[in-house]
Amino acid sequence: MQFTMNAQDLLDGLNTVTRALAARPAKQILEGVLVEASDEGINLTCSDGSLTIESVLTGDVKEPGRVVLPGKLFTELVRKLPGGSVTIKVNENHSASIRCMSSKSNLAGMNAMEYPEMAEVESGVTVKIPQNKLKEMISRVVFSIATDESRQILTGCLLEITRDEARLVALDGFRLAMQKVFQPFDLPAGQETLKSVIPGRVLNELSKILLEEEEFCTMLMGKTRMQATFGNTRLSTVLLAGDYIDYRKILPPAFKTQARAERTAVQNAIDRASLMAREGKNNLIRMRFNDGTLTITSNAELGDVLEEMEATLAGDPIEIAFNAKYITDVIRNISDDELCMKFNSNVSPCVVCPKEGDGYLYLILPVRVFN
Fold first, then answer.
1. Which residues contact 181 (CB under 8 A, 6 or more apart)?
2. Using an 8 Å Cβ cutoff, are 6 and 83 in contact?
3. Nearest to residue 334, comparing CAs of 357, 311, 361?
4. Residue 297, exposed/middle/buried by CB under 10 A (0-12, 13-18, 19+)?
């Protein structure tokens, strides 16, 4: 096998596909990147057995072939190349010669025949979402995906598609995050809703390689696998089995109190209060809405913080306490100028949503405190 291509293009492709490499792979061959040169171009593939990422690059192929090279070492070697064009030649013993300007390296590879085939999604429903919208949706919900493996279904994120919107929902038992995109979707006749649970790690990696552009990411949703294609990249993963929690039953149908305040001011005040909260035993901050004022406080043995700002209140005054990390994570993922919070009591869930519309929704469980 022999081909020549741009070194930066090769590095970009390696940076994309090596996101699928596992920290502790089940097989040694899965530590590598599969490099395939053919008339169609240069294909790079990495897999951990359940997640596979493939990138198709352009180059001058003089001799087609396949080889598996050590993923991390190959990537670092290419990263250190001086730039320009790189020529890679692989001999019959699977040893790769890497030449770039005055740099010459040799890298021991493995037989590509041992590399597992990328599982295909034979049939399913095709869903298209602009890359920039999907990237934003993922980035604003992944913090709420559970990390506790005891409830495996919650280590994934629910993708729910209807004929006019797509929802991403994540919850970990303490908070819920939901993002929506409104556009028409084609579903099979007789099917009103499509539901799939995508592993959290997969969504994390997908959000990092999606581009900030309006070109579509095309997702083929099968019963057990999902395949996402965008640009020159294809990602395939196993979906989580089982039914996701009916999150609609968690959402309060009505509220007794609604409060609004400037988001940036609230975020900055909570950031300052969190410094002291972290020194306390419970990492708590308290929020009190009363008479057009929001008061945020935190206490610890080393001191205390008190912040006051204007707020608009409709309904009963309320004082409520939150884990500082949970409320901070939510507010950091909101870009609206105004923060809108809804309550029923200081021991029932708080909902954060837009002042108008329903493009997103966050739910946070408060902490019961005794004065």
1. 129, 133, 134, 137, 165, 166
2. no
3. 361
4. buried
CA atoms within 13 A on the CB side of 186: 8
With H, G, I as helix, E, B as strand and everything else as coil, classify residue 205: helix
Q: Which residues contact 370 (CB under 8 A, 6 or more apart)?
A: none
Laid out side by side, the sheet with 318-323 consists of: 303-310, 293-300, 284-290, 318-323
Nearest to 46 by CA among 24, 77, 78, 69: 69
d(CA 162, CA 236): 22
Give how far Cα 269 sits from Cα of 48, 93, 210, Å: 43, 63, 33
Residue 327, SS3 per DSSP: helix
Phi, psi for residue 188 in degrees, rounded to 5: -60, 150
Largest CA distance in the chain: 80
Identify the structural domains of the chain with CATH numbers, from first to last.
Answer: 2-114 (3.10.150.10), 125-249 (3.10.150.10), 257-364 (3.10.150.10)
Q: How many CB atoms lie within 10 A of CB 134?
A: 26
pLDDT tens-digit readout, 13-28: 999 999 999 888 888 9
Could you give the CA distance from residue 298 to residue 325 in angstroms, rounded to a whole number? 13
Query: In degrees, to the nearest 5, what angle opens at C-alpha 111 toward C-alphas 106 and 115?
Result: 120
Task: Please say if the pLDDT value at position 141 is more than 70.
Answer: yes
Tell me the pLDDT tens digit for each residue of 73-91: 999 999 999 989 999 999 9
Distance between CA 132 and CA 211 in Å, rounded?
6
The rounded Cα 348 to chain-centroid distance in angstroms is 28
Q: Which residues pair with 63 in a beta bridge?
A: 2
Pairing of strands 225-230, 175-182: unpaired
Place of tokens 């959402």: 251
pTM: 0.91
**Under a CB-based contact definition with an 8 Å cutoff, are residues 290 and 314 in contact?**
no
Q: Which two tokens stand for residue 171?
A: 């919850």
Torsion angles phi and psi, residue 317, rounded to 5: -60, 155
